């Protein structure tokens, strides 16, 4: 996949996550500056964590100013077009899913291009994909949505990162195959939300809280 | 601006933010060690994030032990002199504003000295200035004060970073002009608190929660 | 201390902290994937922060896949063996104490091996030891246990890091002395929990909240 196409997909991913951050800022009653900040944290956070871990110079988000554009556009868009803040939850999940789908592919690709082995590439791809959302939710003082036990979040990202790593090793990674991998991730995430697909709880013995002392 | 003066301003900024962290620790009922930890996180966190992003060796706070002194002094000061914990909110905001004012100037300067371009310098200056407070509040499980929609926080920091970047490019940055830029930031922040200056909300359509279902 | 032994102690520390993360995931009602994520964050977070600060290439947790094994084993163990989620609090504290004890020693050692001075080594050892637990608790939206004023947490870690640094400088650090330092830390932490040893509060003037307005 050429660098230009990779950058383009990355910027679209930044935009999707930035919209999710700006929507959360709107829901929490933050102001427009808080919207830009939370959108930037969601959109750029995962990539900054990845680049800090790769340890090859300053993160792209700081050395290349174009990364700020999608974050600013996202805040403006939410400011001018959001009709109903209280019903924006589903919208937030959609944009978050879009960012997740693109970042697990581009994050893996960046790690592999930086010389990491395939396993570490998958790990960094997943970190990129879930990192921005975790930073967004922690900063807004919410339990990160990756921990919501009612649907799948990290598993689709892992599948997407593994697909991207496999395609890259075979030399088959291009805009179409990369986009298809991202589409699979997006679809899995959305279907898990729609049909309540979920993983088992962390403890097999866990039972829901009953009335009385607990 | 000579390195000594820059270090001095930086240490004063660390002290201001460390006091804000120690005051928050006192308000939350943490112990003296928690006060040192939260003060260090507030005072050193923004600079550590900046230095990690600059990626030029270990952060100053870890390689230069003098950075721990203001954090320890701040905790001791709060321990011995704070009279009324519950009324310390205004004091916290004052010291936080002082740290914000100094860090947006010294953070920008450090980034420019490290070879970043002016735009990235401003971005890193703002990151340095707001980073410590965000880490402090996240760690104490509070919504970061940068997101408080009732006053201005990031905008004064941005103005200060832009002023510092401009002065640096013109070769006019010295103790007086740098101090003046910091004073402007401090004043803007305090006036916004005093007169309720604030930015528009993240969503134009947002209306306050009314009685009944929301 | 040879690299193999150091790696072994480090992996045991990762396992202990990962169990604490998986137990917290179980208590919060997260799913098995959330358990792996929170366990990894607790087990690997402190070391990743240390390695990012040391700035000598990608963190070990990302370049050496063996670091994922204890995190996966911990989640599986909690999933299959945990009998009573609601009473797992004490278990969590035990495993957390084990991780703390090992990480303040191995973290200091890694920092000294990377060429940091003894003071910075102690600082990074404490950061490694408390970092994973702070990340775990912040991510799960809890006040980090390092701030609990009812017992000692950072002080045992500091003592362990200082012991490790002293032993290293004297050339006396081996599996036995390192293990003994870790045992001292573990014992101090457990005794502080058992007997309520604690540090003074952050503000001398603080008094518990009384009835009426506060």
UniProtKB/TrEMBL annotation, chains A, B, C:
Stretches assigned to the Glycine transporter domain: 8-81, 94-167
Domain of life (superkingdom): Bacteria
Subcellular location: Cell membrane
GO cellular component, one term: plasma membrane
Main location: membrane
Transmembrane segments: 6-25, 32-53, 65-82, 91-112, 176-197
Topology term for the membrane: Multi-pass membrane protein
Annotated keywords: Cell membrane, Membrane, Transmembrane, Transmembrane helix
Entry similarity comment: Belongs to the UPF0126 family.
Name of the protein this chain belongs to: Glycine transporter domain-containing protein
Organism expressing this protein natively: Arthrobacter psychrolactophilus
């Amino acid at each position: 996949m050429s660098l230009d196409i990779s950058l383009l997909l990355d910027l679209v991913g930044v935009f999707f996550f930035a919209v999710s951050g700006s929507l959360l800022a709107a829901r929490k009653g933050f102001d427009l500056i808080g919207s830009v900040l939370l959108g930037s944290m969601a959109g750029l956070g995962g990539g900054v964590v990845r680049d800090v871990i790769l340890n090859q110079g300053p993160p792209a988000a700081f050395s290349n100013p174009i990364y700020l554009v999608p974050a600013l556009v996202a805040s403006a868009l939410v400011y001018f077009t959001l009709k109903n803040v209280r019903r924006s939850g589903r919208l937030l999940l959609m944009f978050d899913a879009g960012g997740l789908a693109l970042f697990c592919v581009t994050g893996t690709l960046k790690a592999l291009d930086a010389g990491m082995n395939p396993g570490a590439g998958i790990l960094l791809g997943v970190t990129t994909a879930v990192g921005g959302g975790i930073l967004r939710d922690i900063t807004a003082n919410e339990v990160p949505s990756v921990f919501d036990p009612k649907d799948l979040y990290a598993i689709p990202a892992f599948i997407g990162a593994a697909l991207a790593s496999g395609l890259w090793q075979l030399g088959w990674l291009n805009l179409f195959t990369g986009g298809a991998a991202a589409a699979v991730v997006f679809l899995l995430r959305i279907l898990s939300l729609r049909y309540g697909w979920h993983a088992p709880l962390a403890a097999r013995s866990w039972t829901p809280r009953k009335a009385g002392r607990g």
